[in-house]
Specification:
two-stranded antiparallel sheet; three-stranded mixed sheet; single chain
Length: 128
């Protein structure tokens, strides 16, 4: 504290970093920061699956962002077929939630085995 006679130490304040959103100005939650860090280091993989009412996967497309071209090629090369094969082995899997979970697990294991990375996996199920 400063006054005419000099200065003296006031009370201590605990300080911490606070991250705010650029647009809203609100504080950013911890899980948002973790997701953004994960995207920056390990990328994102979107698996688009067209599924018939019988549970059969008709069409499967894998979109990869945030990785090198070589890593993208490595992921796309075998992941599509691996997901189709493993889903066929799990016959009777018709629930969308369970199918999303299965696709996520298959993709995570395959990508970690190939690249030793944990990208964010976003399965999108389209019923046809």
């Amino acid at each position: 504290m400063f006054n005419q006679n000099g200065a003296r130490i006031g009370r201590k304040l605990n300080l911490e970093n606070v991250y705010v959103d650029q647009i809203s100005g609100e504080e950013v939650e911890g899980f948002v920061l973790r997701d953004r860090q994960r995207l920056a280091t390990d990328g994102v993989v979107v698996v688009l699956a067209e599924v018939a009412s019988s549970g059969k996967v008709d069409n499967l497309d894998v979109v990869v962002k945030g990785l090198s071209q070589q890593e993208i090629t490595d992921i796309q090369k075998g992941l599509t077929q691996e997901i189709k094969t493993q889903l066929q082995q799990r016959q009777g899997l018709r629930d969308r939630f369970l199918m999303r979970k299965a696709i996520t697990e298959i993709a995570e294991k395959s990508i970690f085995r190939k690249l030793r990375k944990h990208p964010l996996i976003l399965p999108v199920i389209i019923e046809v």
